[in-house]
Design goal:
374 residues, alpha/beta, UDP-N-acetylmuramoyl-L-alanine:D-glutamate ligase, 5-stranded mixed β-sheet, globular
């Protein structure tokens, strides 16, 4: 695992040299969109304005389990309401770097939901339907996402053609430096959209190979056959794109199980070995896995592992993975190798969980040069 100050200083210098070219990059990302409420669960209320928070998911689970056969009251405190969804969070972070971003997703219909107004000032955005809604219960050791997804069935190829336009979609898809399709799990027609893209748009693409990023987003609830079909479609984009498949640690074990591999949790060396096995069966250009404290990437049979900017008391965790993905893609678009791109990813998420804000490129450089200890 790479975690030296010399490595971070070298990558910071590379970023500083390349910073001027970020404005020449473009991204076309979609297709989800959520309104996120970030919530704390009250353990003990001290007064009208003060409370002790339930600290861990295990503690929350114990409280719920103890109510079995009886009943219980759970108080939630709103910490913030913000734009949500894997796509808007990732695209907003890319725009914060200074990239030219176009976004298509479920941001409100017939007009944008107000939570996306600031995003719309940073990027070119278009919406297909009303957003989903997520109650994000945040704890010190993770988060529980409770979602309302009923509007997302409107994100389909027919709606794209009628409300956005096939030709406009083809133009964005066919010209962006980076294409990002995220949140496959919550979009029931994403595989159908991919099938239509590959049948109708992919054959006509010409010019140099570009990058396409995919995040399945916790596929545990989806059927194994649907997951396998999605992996085949993702791999098929490789005829025209250098494909990046991004997974968090939990998702890596879920994909391993579907592929018939051993899904037993393991340390970073064991996860690196599992990543090689997954990559052999899902031969995208790059496979990325990002646990909480480090991240790894596999390309051409080689694994790179980089330590993360660990934060013991994060200000926010919802969206940290999407920020990692944006940072990693930034590195790859700038021509950095996997290790340097991983550092861009963990630095982006590291800044975000500390500040609840998406970083600029200078802020990434600053974090690399002044690496936090916790």
């Amino acid at each position: 695992m790479i975690e030296s100050a010399e490595f971070r200083a070298r990558v910071a210098d590379q970023l500083r040299t390349q910073a001027g070219s970020v404005a020449t990059l473009s991204a076309f990302v979609g297709l989800d969109g959520f309104v996120d409420e970030i919530l704390h669960v009250v353990d003990k209320r001290q007064s009208a304005d003060r409370y002790d928070r339930v600290r861990t998911i295990g503690d929350f689970g114990d409280r719920l389990s103890s109510a079995s056969g009886q009943s219980t009251n759970v108080e939630l405190v709103n910490v913030m309401t913000k734009l949500g969804g894997n796509g808007p969070i990732m695209a907003n972070a890319l725009a914060s770097f200074g990239m030219n971003v176009s976004y298509l997703g479920s941001l409100g219909w017939p007009s944008l939901h107000p939570v996306f107004d600031e995003f719309a000032r940073r990027a070119e955005v278009a919406s297909l339907c009303s957003p989903g809604f997520t109650d994000a219960l945040e704890f010190e050791d993770g988060k529980v996402m409770v979602g309302k997804h009923y509007t997302l069935k409107e994100v389909n190829w027919s709606t794209i053609e009628s409300r956005f336009g096939r030709e406009k979609f083809a133009l964005r898809f066919g010209s962006a430096s980076l294409v990002g399709f995220v949140n496959w799990t919550m979009l029931p027609y994403m595989s159908d959209i991919w099938t239509n893209i590959q049948r109708e748009l992919l054959p006509a693409l010409t010019g140099p190979r570009r990058r396409l990023f995919v995040d399945l987003a916790d596929p545990e609830k989806r059927l194994p056959g649907d997951i396998l079909q999605a992996l085949e479609l993702i791999t098929a984009f490789g005829t025209k794109f250098d494909v990046i498949l991004g997974l968090n640690e939990k998702e890596a074990y879920e994909i391993a199980a579907v592929l018939g591999l051993d899904p037993t949790p393991r340390d970073w060396k064991g996860l690196a070995e599992l990543a090689l096995q997954i990559h052999q069966r899902v031969p995208v250009e790059t496979l990325v896995i990002h646990p909480v404290t480090y991240a790894l990437a596999v390309s051409a049979g080689e694994v790179s592992v980089v330590a993360g900017a660990v934060c013991r008391r994060p200000k926010i965790t919802t969206g940290a993975g999407d920020h990692f993905n944006s940072g990693f893609c930034l590195g790859k678009l700038l021509g950095l190798d996997n290790a340097a791109s991983l550092l861009c990813g963990v630095s982006t998420s590291g800044h975000y969980v500390r500040t609840a804000e998406s970083p600029s490129v200078p802020q990434l450089i600053e974090l690399m040069e002044n690496w936090p200890v916790a």
